Every structure is written in structure tokens, then in C-alpha cells.
Amino acid sequence: MALTVEQRFFLAILVIAFPFSAISGDPDILSDFVVPPGTNNTLLDGNFFTYTGIRPLVNSTPPTNFTVTKATMVEFPALNGQSVSYAVLQYPAGSVNPPHTHPRATELLFLTYGILEVGFVDTTNKLFTQRLEAGDMFVFPKGLVHYQFNCADNDSAMAISAFGSAAAGTVSVPSTVFGTNIDDDILAKSFKTDVYTIQKLKEGFPPKA
Ligand SMILES: *[C@@H]1O[C@H](CO)[C@@H](O)[C@H](O)[C@H]1NC(C)=O
Ligand SMILES: *[C@@H]1O[C@H](CO)[C@@H](O)[C@H](O)[C@H]1NC(C)=O
Ligand SMILES: *[C@@H]1O[C@H](CO)[C@@H](O)[C@H](O)[C@H]1NC(C)=O
């Protein structure tokens, strides 16, 4: 059976696209796990695969501002090469996790208590929003701008997010744009406003020295 021109075209696209789909997560490793250089494997035990850095949050008083506690390969080296990581997100009433992206991972957020308004914007500029209740999950597709807001008057919220990378990375939109010394004129033109407005916005995001 001969293939039509369209069928050949789609076949060609599939063949071209397939190798890229296979490298969409962290690179595969050629060992069971990766240990830091100089590690004596004989001494390796369950402790290397255990992270206790989240323990202090259990039964602690909720923070007074939005707080992220990460368990990425930086804090938990055994994640290196395993394509997973976690973050614990604590939201006092009225607090926001400002618009940001994770360039290397999808985020799967699980709301453990409280309520949360969440949203992301796709590459066609369409906004998807949801109001989550405790026990709900929401997926933020890889690389897209997203946010979370605790809209409650009085109650804090807590979520646990899983990432499909040991080093998902975070790019915060406000501090990337206004906290990195991009020229005022360039920002004024980009945001269709004046230099004074840009300078006012920059006051909230002092550049790191
Ligand atoms: C690794 O640890 C074992 C057990 O303590 C020890 O016998 C061995 O000499 C160590 N190897 C190296 C390369 O340090
Ligand atoms: C957040 O709150 C903690 C105490 O809960 C405080 O130490 C810290 O400075 C606050 N951070 C900001 C950016 O306000
Ligand atoms: C918030 O909680 C405090 C302490 O429980 C209570 O006194 C206050 O009335 C609450 N405020 C609102 C807006 O629910």
C-alpha cells in the first residue's frame, strides 16, 4: 500500500521529533545512582538516600510570609540523575507566589491544607485558572508562567510540589525583569510606559550585588 504525500510528511515529522521526546527530562545516567566525587561506596548506606530537611516544618508555626523549602539535588544530592524533586510551599493568608517559570520541569502541586487560587498562561497567552481545595492537585506544564495565591482572609495554606527534574530551576518574572539592571529605556518601550514608572517598579526589586 503506497503512502500518500501527507502520510509521508507525518512519518517524517515523527521520525524527526522522536529523538527529542526522549531527552525532554533530565539526562539518563549510566549507573543506578550518582554519588558525589570522593565518596567511599563501601560506607554508603540508607542515609545518603534520606532527606530530613523538611522535618522542622512538621508541627512548626506557619511563617508570616510566603516561604518555599526546596528538596532539589542541591539540598539532597541523591536526587542527581533521578529526574525528581520536591518543594514545600507555605502561604500565609493573602500571600502570593509571584508569576514564575521552571525551565526544566513540569510541576505537580498537591494542596495539603487551605485554599489556593492558581493559574498558568500557555504560549498562545491563554490563561487557565482554578480554585483548589485541600486534597486537590494541579499540574503546571513545563516552562509556562504560573502563580499561586492564598485568597483566604485568615487561614494559611500549604502545598507540596513535585518536579520532573532534580534541578527544575526557577525564573521569577518580576525580579528577572525589574531586578537585573535591564536598561530603563528598554523596559519603558517594552512595557509601553515611561522611565519613571519603570524606576518605581524597580524599587521593589533591588538587584543582587
Ligand atoms: C572505604 O571504607 C572501607 C570501610 O571503612 C575501608 O576499608 C576502605 O579502605 C575505604 N576505601 C577507601 C578508598 O578509602
Ligand atoms: C519572612 O518571614 C520570616 C519570619 O517568618 C523573616 O525572617 C523573613 O525576613 C521574612 N522575609 C521577607 C522577605 O519578608
Ligand atoms: C481571624 O482569626 C482571628 C483569630 O482566630 C479572629 O479573631 C478574627 O476574627 C479572624 N478574622 C477574620 C476576618 O476571619
From TrEMBL:
Cupin type-1 domain boundaries: 55-199
Organism field: Hibiscus syriacus
Main location: secreted
Lineage: Eukaryota, Viridiplantae, Streptophyta, Embryophyta, Tracheophyta
CDD domains hit by this protein: cupin_OxOx
Keyword presence, Transit peptide: no
InterPro entries linked to this entry: Cupin_1, Germin, RmlC-like_jellyroll, RmlC_Cupin_sf
Domain of life per record: Eukaryota
Residues reported in the UniProt entry to bind oxalate: N97, H102, E107
Residues binding Mn(2+): H100, H102, E107, H146
Family of the protein in this entry: Belongs to the germin family.
Keywords per UniProt: Apoplast, Glycoprotein, Manganese, Metal-binding, Secreted, Signal
Leader peptide range in chain numbering: 1-25
Protein name listed in UniProt: Germin-like protein
Assembly information from the UniProt record: Oligomer (believed to be a pentamer but probably hexamer).
